[in-house]
Specification:
The chain is an alpha+beta fold. About 35% of the residues lie in helices and about 15% in strands. Helix 1 links the parallel strand 1 and strand 2. Helix 1 packs parallel to helix 10, helix 5 crosses helix 14 and helix 12 runs parallel beside helix 14. It starts with 5 loop residues before the first strand and ends in a 14-residue tail after the last strand. The protein binds flavin-adenine dinucleotide.
Length: about 600
């Protein structure tokens, strides 16, 4: 019998940690990525990674981290996985430290920690303003070691198109597109991991970089994998506009003492430095005296929206407020926030050390993603090595990282994502490994028919796309999708506008069929790949919008003015979308709240 094979799609933190765990168990991995793995989106993370190491003597603990995370997620997260993540967090930070992540240190040489949103503790370890980059490079080095030992084969510039199912509906491999040669090829795998990040591109310009289209997850959804909590899209309160993207101004700025304010006077046109202290409204500090500027993101974004759109107090009448660090010593700013402030200075042309920053909310993260399973023990912790962990509704197909829906409920706490990605890889790898050990016939020994068929189907689909010669420009269509989603399915969800958005997406799907693919070439043809992704993006946009229409309450990142309260009696449940020709079929599933009982969520 042949040795089992493993496929990891995605070389961000989640994909690399999964690969490491598989290799530690002696497994062989084929690792696919659109970009070189070191350029995966994880590289952009600035602020830090959470773990209750309690080095500052605040009596912090993994249990308090667990409570903060569940409350931060407005009680929509299945609790055992969150518990496992929070208890593993301190050892993950020490592990990364040993791997060489250059975390900031205190003058005594201890790891330094800062505050982040949704907690009163200094719980976020950070490496200047490049935490994600340092972590990604550290994991990349480990994977390179396994690559040199022959355990890992890397396929960079390679796009996952879909998975291969056998006659019993079990995932047995993938079909990938070589983005340079434009060749389509099937690969066999007994456990396939999607670690393909979030779907931010649905929203056009966001804080994300352009590769995060959600296309891989959508493709799996089209093949039958369930998609959960799609409507929970996180809007980060602090970003700056740009023609290409909206640049994040990390929560670490508020964690290091940055203060948000506006003038108390509507229509005040004075430059910020001329507005005296007594005339400034420090809105977070006034309304939420305990958490101040570090309320969770959903609450912060909603507050800014209310202040600017309903009360008309936004800077220059826009959806803009000040984020001020001018009171913090320059030496501290340069040491702890240098990179973030440089971004502002470079793109806005003003020095934030001297002038308060003008910031606005921007789409940032998706709490929703592929539905995954887990198995918890009587102690409430996930059972490591259980094949159910991180497995999607398709046997043999696993999801790890931002692409899965677990860990964050209705709203993610800042700095919990780097953690959840690493943790998901740590429990996903062993789960896939034991799943593969239980298979009677490894993928390598199966007849080639299912693989040949899947390859042929994708070749046909891409040839069809390459030959599309209608009148619609695919990039214009994508821009329109981003605009409509941004306008109607972000901070405030009005049912009428959601219905209009739904109809608009359906109409855009019709226009997709009249696309002109622009490039008919056979080498490095990006429009072909993009047109395929665009269809997937529209399918996901429908999942997000229909989930939002159906959820008649306000919870976490989902806020409906018509139903402004959380409604546990009717809506403490996970939204599950299953693909059908008529659009997403929506059902609901109970949330596991066995460890912490839901209570009112207050930060004042
Ligand atoms: C600007 C910014 C700052 C952030 N800062 C923080 C922070 O300080 N702390 C925190 O906890 N979180 C932060 N986050 C969130 C966090 O960075 C991400 O959620 C996390 O890094 C996602 O990691 P991942 O491994 O799941 O996916 P990614 O890092 O996005 O990697 C996805 C991988 O999948 C590959 N891929 C995608 N589609 C395909 C396909 N079809 N075929 C083949 N490969 C594919 C990509 O090439 C890539 O390798 C930040 C996010 C942003 C946008």
């Amino acid at each position: 019998m042949s040795e089992p094979r493993f496929i990891v799609v995605g070389g961000g933190l989640a994909g690399l940690m999964t690969t490491i765990k598989l290799c530690e168990a002696g497994r062989r991995v084929d690792l696919f990525s659109l970009t070189p793995v070191k350029r995966s989106h994880s590289v952009c993370a600035q602020g830090g990674i959470n773990g209750a190491v309690n080095i500052k003597g605040e009596n912090d603990s993994p249990e308090l981290h667990f409570v903060d995370s569940v409350k931060g997620g407005d009680f929509l997260a299945n609790q055992p996985l969150v518990k496992g993540m929070c208890y593993a967090a301190p050892s993950i930070i020490y592990l990364l430290d040993r791997m060489g992540v250059t975390f900031n240190r205190t003058p005594e040489g201890n790891l330094d920690f800062r505050r982040f949103g949704g907690t009163l503790f200094h719980r976020t370890a950070f490496a200047g303003a490049t935490t994600g980059q340092q972590m990604l490079y550290a994991l990349d080095e480990q994977v390179r070691r396994y690559e040199s030992e022959g355990l890992v084969r890397k396929f960079e510039y390679s796009e996952f198109l879909g998975f291969v199912k056998d006659g019993e509906g079990v995932c047995r491999g993938i079909v990938a597109l070589d983005l340079r040669a434009m060749t389509v090829q099937a690969f066999r795998g007994d456990a396939v991991f999607l670690a393909t990040g979030g779907p931010a591109m649905l929203y056009g310009r966001t804080t994300n970089s352009v590769v995060n289209s959600g296309s891989a997850a959508a493709s799996a959804y089209l093949q039958g994998a369930k998609y959960a909590n799609g409507e929970f899209i996180q809007v980060h309160p602090t970003a700056i506009p740009g023609e290409d993207k909206l640049r994040l101004i990390s929560e670490s700025v508020r964690g290091e003492g940055g203060r948000c304010w506006v003038s108390r006077t509507k229509g005040d046109t004075r430059p910020p430095r001329q507005i005296p202290e007594s005339e400034r409204l420090y809105f977070f500090e006034e309304k939420y005296p305990r958490y101040g500027n570090l309320v969770p993101r959903d609450i912060a974004s909603r507050e800014i929206y209310d202040l600017c759109e309903n009360k008309g107090l936004g800077v220059d009448g826009q959806l803009v407020v000040y984020l001020d660090v001018t009171h913090i010593p320059k030496e501290t700013l340069d040491r702890k926030l240098g990179g973030v402030l440089e971004i502002y200075e470079k793109f806005m042309g003003e020095d934030p050390r001297e002038v308060p920053m003008r910031i606005a909310p921007a789409v940032h993260y998706s709490m929703g993603g592929l539905w995954i399973d887990y198995e918890a023990g009587p102690d409430g912790f996930p059972k490591v090595g259980n094949p159910r962990n991180q497995q999607t509704s398709i046997p043999g197909l696993f999801a790890v990282g931002e692409v899965d829906y677990e860990y964050h409920g209705a709203n993610r706490l800042g700095a919990n994502s780097l953690l959840s990605c690493v943790y998901a890889g740590m429990i996903g790898g062993p789960a896939g490994s034991s799943y593969a050990s239980g298979l009677k016939t490894p993928a390598a020994d199966l007849p080639s028919s299912a693989f040949d068929q899947a390859e042929a189907l994708w070749r046909e689909r891409l040839t069809g796309i390459r030959n599309m010669s209608g009148t619609v420009n695919p990039y214009e269509l994508a821009r329109e999708l981003g605009e409509v989603m941004n306008a109607n399915v972000t901070i405030v969800r009005d049912n009428k506008k959601l219905q209009e958005t739904d109809a608009r997406i359906v109409e855009m799907m019709d226009r997709w069929k009249k696309i002109n693919t622009l490039d008919k070439g056979g080498w490095n043809n990006m429009p072909v790949a993009f047109v395929n992704q665009l269809w997937h993006m529209m399918e996901l946009a429908l999942v997000v919008t229909r989930g939002a229409i159906r959820r008649e309450e306000s919870r976490g990142a989902h806020y409906k003015p018509e139903k402004p309260q959380r409604d546990d009696a009717n809506w403490l449940k996970t939204t599950i979308a299953t693909w059908s020709k008529e659009g997403p079929q929506i059902t609901y599933e109970k949330v596991d709240t066995s460890l912490i009982q839901p209570v009112a969520r207050k930060y004042d």
